[in-house]
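Ticket #4471: structure output looks truncated?

Reporter: J.K.
Steps to reproduce: submitted the chain below (355 residues) through the standard prediction queue, then opened the result file.
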Amino acid sequence: MEAREVDRNDVIAAILAAGILEPVSIEIEGPVLAVEVREQWAIFPIPMISSDASGTAFGLLFVDANAFGLNDQLLLGGHYHPNNWSATAGYIRSSRGGRSPGFVGLFSFGREERHDLNQNSDVLRRFELDEISVRAMLRFPLLADTDLLTASVLFSFDDFRLRNRGEALRAPDYSLRLYGTGADFTAERNSWDGFFLSRREISVQGLFLTDFSGVSFSSVNVQGTWERPIVPGFRLNLRTGILFMPNTPIFFEQDPEVAQVDILPADFSARSYAGLSAGLEQRILRIPAGTVSVAASYQAVYSEGSVLGNSFDHGVTGAIFFYLNRIAIPAVGLGLAYNVQRNYLRAFLSVGLRL
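Returned output as attached by the reporter:
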């Protein structure tokens, strides 16, 4: 980049996007760029509490966002609910500034009594299972010295074992062990307006899974985020999530998070989604610890599942977010979502960890 083209806000965006640094001072004199930064608190526990008609869940996620001082991420966590419990571990190796491949490794084990709900939280399916899940991913930078465009190769292993079949409702007919491989392409760019680190990102992932004995299926997943300031401190937020998994086994039906919407129950499941969220966000307070904002959005989602079939839902959300300066979490949010189509109201908590 030519020295005269360096923009202070682009420098701030690059520092904040690293996830573990906070800018202290930036000086640009001719061809010299002098930056002073401060390391954020990168090791922290994240407690999680949620409650619904089936009981209260407790969880704890321990995160080191700068493992071994290498800008890698280490994850250890678990959660307990009267109907299920699970444990998760993972390590994410950064690509070292776009010069070498990155790596993601995730492992989880869980035991649950799974309840698949409709939009009014009625139980449509119930069964018990043990699940072991392993994920491995190699990330390759496609542009020199930057992570703006990356490609990934994916490998997966999933083992689902049914339990207590006599008490099940619309359960799968058999246990299943699947091996998978796929690819992912991601393009990302960040900007800074003095208040928000705004992200523009799109990723496309294809995955093929098989048990090598006749059961196989494929999926396509598209995730998009477009955050753009209208004026400093006031921005437009657009998000979309598309998942297409025809003929997938029940075990692999996904929750609404993949569609980037909040108007469906967390235990809702479907094999295909097309979701859109369009909203506005306004900064209301800036304090030494961070920035507080309020946001509202309109959301619409089409889903297709093995029990409900085709379904269309739309509604509105309102939330308050806290962007922390000294802690390496992009944002923590608390909000309400109302599904107009089903007259359904739910509260949601979001923690902006990005894997």
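Triage note (M.O.): checked the attachment and the full token line is present. Residues 8-17 form the longest helix (10 residues).
Status: closed, working as intended.
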